[in-house]
Fold this protein.
Amino acid sequence: MKKVLILAVDYDDDISRAGVETPILGYTELLDAALKFGVVFPDDSDLNVLFHALHLYNQLKSGDYDPEIALVSGSSESHVESGRRIREQLRQLLERTGIKDVILVLDSVEDELVIPIVQNHASIVAVERVVVEQLRGVEETYVLLGKYLRKAIEDPKYSKIFFGLPGLLILVYVLISISPYAIYAWEITLGVLGAFMIFRGFHILEFIMKRWYASSVYRVATVLSTLSLVVGIALTVGALVAQNFSVDAKSISTYIKTLLPFLTLSLVVAYTSRLTVRVLRRSIRMWRDVVAIVFTLIAAFYVNDLADVVANYPGLSILTLVYDLRLVNTIALMSLTLIAVYVTLSYVERYVAGSGRRT
């Protein structure tokens, strides 16, 4: 008999709202959990995942397989916490069952984020995607829209997007409109929206939270680095307002010299924290952070000097900056030097690591 683990996935931990704790192992236990969840939330799509997993169990049981069935859930807080919880629950299940072949049962694109987590611990032999059939009538469409609207209101994960963000933008617009800078209300509101989209698009918050929980060194560095960057941006915005958003050479130099020290400090603190962790772990990769810190400082000094030149000679044209100040040559030299140092030290790291493995 071929052993296989049927693994139902609830990535955002909806099942905990019905008082069900995971991981759950066993057909009877999962059936009880599905009934308990279905009584409380009969319209939730995760209920179809549970019953599909139970159906698949019975189907395999009647064949040449000796299946086991289980349920794992993540977290509604963040993808980082979801991945961490599912990894830990999966590890417990694999230790208890001794099964290495897994059939995943899931119902959404978000649930598919669990695939690489499972692949690191077991072999995925199949992925069952549950698609619920829906009628296309007008009445059913209104009902479906009503369900999604109610979910957007009641579910914190969606309400902060559909209501929290628009509410924040409206508040910013109103506050700026009643201030002396009312003419910039739309620009500032769009800037807030752009910042939010950058944070969500590049998963900056998830990255910060991951570093935050990784080490106490990272926690301190995250606070200092973020504080430095926020202060620098605030002072730069103040300089923009003081200069009436002027874009002449002297004003641009002022903006650069205002932001540059805080941006440099933020980057140096971030790299130093990673360097400290690698030194404590005696990692050979510590040289990468040393190179990053040195290059950041050199680039900061050069940009600062360039800003001084532009401020002292505001009449300089772009061609003068490019040719007379050897801007292109300097940037090219810095880039080639950085590449040469990085490639050289990479080979040294690979050689040392290879020597260590042979020893």
